Fold this protein.
Amino acid sequence: MIEWFAVDLIKQAGELIRREIDQSYEVERKTGKGDLVTEIDRAVEQLIVRRIQHTFPEHQIMGEEGTTDQPEQLTGTVWFVDPIDGTLNFIHQKRMFAISIAIMIDGVVEYGFVYDVMADEMFMARKGYGATLNGRTLTTLHEHHVRDAFLSMNATWVTPNHQIAPEILAPIVRDSIGTRAHGAASLELAWLAAGRVDGYITMRNMPWDYAAGKLLVEEVGGRVVSLYGEPIRYDGKTSVLAGSDSFVNDVIKHYVITKGVTAEAKPDLHIVEHDSYEEIRDLLVLANPNEAMVREQFEEGRTYKALLGGEIVGAYMLVSHEGNRVELVNIAVKPERQNQTIGQRMLQDAVKRATMIGGKELLVCTGNSSIMQLRFYQQAGFRFDSVERDYFRDHGYDDIEEDGLVLRDRICLTRPL
Ligand code: 2AM
Ligand code: CA
């Protein structure tokens, strides 16, 4: 069984690390002061790679230290190998680092192993069969929100850095019951699966850092997505947000989305001008049920659609008014694609395009009962401009209730361009 082969391999690699940890070894810098590799990382990866290649010559291996060719496509069986995850801990503390191995078969991670070498703790997961720690079954995660969560996150992400504005994640640190930086992604995910922490956030991980830990968390009912709520891919660097469903939703909805954060570059989301009304009608009436008005705005203004892999997932319109005012209307995202920052990216796109067509001010109007939108626009730099009382009643809208409020008054907000 591949599972026992992997366990035996990891235990052997663990022995090697424990033997070498007190000897002197060379340390090299990879990309920066915190990104190091030692002779031991390489030796351990080599041991693991050789044994896999010997037993399963047809398998592909994606290892952190590049001691073998990286696969071009994730087809067949692929091993994700991090010989030492948490190299800084390994060097400075001689503890709290792990060997992380995941086995992907035909695009699905089927097995995940995270071995805390010095604590001799083996976390294992098999897709659909649950997760164990040294043979004991791990129980389902408890639901947490940020306010009652004990978190694992590096302090780097609340200081100026290249991945995210520090003020996005700082409120999470403030609101949670405590934040710790453990410094080894795979182990932090394994500890989450074991209920030792309630959430894990990082802005920069590679597949060998999270592939095994992600399966561990999922097998105890948790969720692992990007910080923007997108599914995690296995083809490069990504942010990682992990925890119970409630925790993950809380972070995305109340800390990330509402701050108007720029999502990670998503090469397959394109926003382009669109000219067929019928094709986009259903989406537009989601934003404004008054179809006659939508059609009129379509004729009068410009319409843009957001495409994800060829599918239309969102749309918005710009209508020019006097005095270099451009109005953003009917911004809508397909219901099953909401909370994935597509709305934010359309708003950013709208700001750019409104500027390009000569706008000096962007106007947006919504209802008094659209609390989420009122927050969203203010956080994107809009300020209240005017109120038209009973606008919705006077324009033929039926009584609509949202968040316990009746939709009555139209609120318009503006931001300079
Ligand atoms: P490593 O120790 O194997 O390099 C540290 O917060 C965590 O992020 C560790 O799991 C570390 O893995 C990983 N990490 C450190 N630098 C990284 C980088 N440049 N890209 C991706 N992951 C990194
Ligand atoms: Ca490593």
The chain is about 30% helix and 30% strand. The pocket of calcium ion (ligand 2) is lined by residues 41, 64, 82, 84-85, 87 (CB under 6 Å).
